[in-house]
Amino acid sequence: MQVAQGKIDGYIHPKPEPWDIAAAALIVEMAGGKATNFVGEPWTPFSESIIASNGYIHTQLLEIAYAAVTATRNR
């Protein structure tokens, strides 16, 4: 909700529960933002991750998430 309200620019969560995120993801999109999984596909309740943003920084958040996942897998 804070993304939709403009209080924060983005939100990343690797394993959200759909009941915690579904309404907020829809509200973010209705407010002009973006909600995707870590691959950049539109978020659905079946997505394993979420990146929600104001839309302006979404590409950067995807890059950050990709780098974090890659670094974790390479350990």
TrEMBL record:
Keywords: Magnesium, Metal-binding. GO terms for molecular function: inositol monophosphate 1-phosphatase activity; metal ion binding. One of its GO terms (biological process) is inositol metabolic process. Gene3D superfamilies: 3.40.190.80. Its cofactor is Mg(2+). Mg(2+) binds at residue 20. The keyword Transferase does not apply. Pfam families: Inositol_P (PF00459). SUPFAM superfamilies: Carbohydrate phosphatase. This is Inositol monophosphatase. It comes from Candidatus Giovannonibacteria bacterium GW2011_GWB1_47_6b.
